[in-house]
Amino acid sequence: MADLKLGKLPDRTPSKMTITVSADLNQALKDYAALYRQTYGESETVAELIPFMLAGFLEGDRAFAKARKESLPAAGMSEKSRRMSGSDSE
C-alpha cells in the first residue's frame, strides 16, 4: 500500500436534522443572515448558515473539546502500541 501524505478522508455524508426554535431565536437567526448579507454581499439562508455556526460554537468550546478528547480512546496509537500499553495494565 502506498504511504500517502494525505490520509483517508473522513465520512462526509451529510445528515439532515429538523429542529424547532423559539420565535426570538428564529428572528435572531434571520437578523444574522441579513447582517451576513450586508457584510459579505452574498445572501445565504439561515439553513445554510446554521451548520457553520454550530461548528464554530463547538470548536470554540474548550471544555467540550477537552472532555471529548479525554473520553475518546487513543486515536493516534497504532494497534501494536495499544497492545503494548494494554499489557502493562494486566
Radius of gyration: 21 Å
Q: Counting H and I runs of at least 4 residues, what is the number of helices?
A: 4
Q: In percent, how helical is the residue content?
A: 55-70%
Question: Low-confidence segments, ≥5 residues, pLDDT <50?
Answer: 75-83
Compute the number of strand runs.
Answer: 0
What is the element string, with H for helices and E for strands?
HHHH
User: Based on CA inertia axes, which overall geometry fits?
Assistant: extended
Mean pLDDT: 84
* Structure class: mainly alpha
Percentage of β-strand residues: under 5%
Q: How is the main sheet built?
A: none
Written overview of the protein:
With 90 residues, the chain is mainly alpha-helical. It has four helices and no strands. The chain has helices at 23-40, 46-60, 62-71, 79-88. Residues 75-83 have low confidence and may be disordered. It comes from Mesorhizobium intechi.
Short synopsis of the structure:
The protein has helices spanning 23-40, 46-60, 62-71, 79-88. It is an all-alpha fold.
Q: How are the secondary structure elements laid out?
A:
Elements lengths: L22 H18 L5 H15 L1 H10 L7 H10 L2
Pfam family, one: DUF2274
Protein name: DUF2274 domain-containing protein
InterPro entries: DUF2274
What are its keywords?
single chain; 90 residues; mainly alpha; 4 helices
